[in-house]
Amino acid sequence: MRPLIAAGRKVFCTRTFSKIYGLAGLRIGYGYGACELIRVLHQVRPPFNVNSVALAAALGAIDDTEFVERSRKANRDGLAQLYEGFSELGVEYVPSEGNFVLVRFEDSDRVFQYLYSEGIIVRPLQGYALPEYLRISVGHRDQNQRLLAALSRGLERGFADT
Length: 162
Prior knowledge:
Layout: H1 2-6, E1 12-16, E2 29-33, H2 35-44, H3 52-61, H4 65-89, E3 92-94, E4 100-104, H5 108-117, E5 123-124, E6 133-137, H6 141-157
Antiparallel strand pairs: 1-2, 3-4, 4-6, 5-6
């Protein structure tokens, strides 16, 4: 994005501190882009739009490169675990560079409801014109295994509620 901004393109990029910095509960992020876009955003943002605790945590986290690298590695490992599990289950997925995977099911709503009944929350994507897909976030190893086990049981049962 930076080359586009430097070239004068009117782009704005957002980043979150949620997973990579471990600050998901604080709901803080940042954005960068063309100066004219930043000026417009400043005109419409509410005053005091970030609380002081979240801001202090973000300022403390931004230089913690060791934590960020551990987070990247954990995400890569989690993606590999999910890919292997999806492949073993015969479930189609879209390889990802992020912290989630798009997974295809013929009846994604039924799978969503089944996983929800198992205490696993995923995101349906009908609103993004991807009605057959669920967005599944990469978790810790045990969380990923729990998801894969639930999918395995669900596939055996045709995703009928437990």
